[in-house]
Amino acid sequence: MAGPAHVNAIKISTNAAQYFVESYYLALNSHRDWITSFYMPAAEMPGGKSLPSISFNGNQIANAAAMQTMFEQQMPPSHYEVQCYDCHVVNPNYVAEGTQGWPAKTGKNMTILVAVSGYVKYGSSKETKPRGFSESFLLVPNPAAANTRQRSKTVKEWVIQTQSFRVVV
To answer: pTM for the complete prediction?
Structure first.
């Protein structure tokens, strides 16, 4: 039987995933200037790997700003339709610099894996056929939200640390 902390983690992760999926794909569809707000601040892991780590159809994207620039300047209009998503707590005891602002009792010091699949249509032509896509995210607590205690278009409770997107052929 799951204890109260486990049940709380499931509830928090489910709510976080729902809010994230709804707002992230809205941004991709019609508010591309919001894209950078979904990513953690740039950081470097021991060994030199940059975070956030973003892979788009097998191509490594340098950072959140490059992802936003790609969508704003290189991608045609798009319409993402999420068919399903799932989430799992990966690390229930995540501690990173700046996240100590979340009191332990909130249960928000965790990492969440979010798996999404659906259809995407690139371009505005009615003849354009939708294509399947699959995407995975690792979300981490946002230190800025821990300190401000508010969600908005620019301050998210959960931000992307790792992302992998793939159009299904």
So the answer is: 0.90
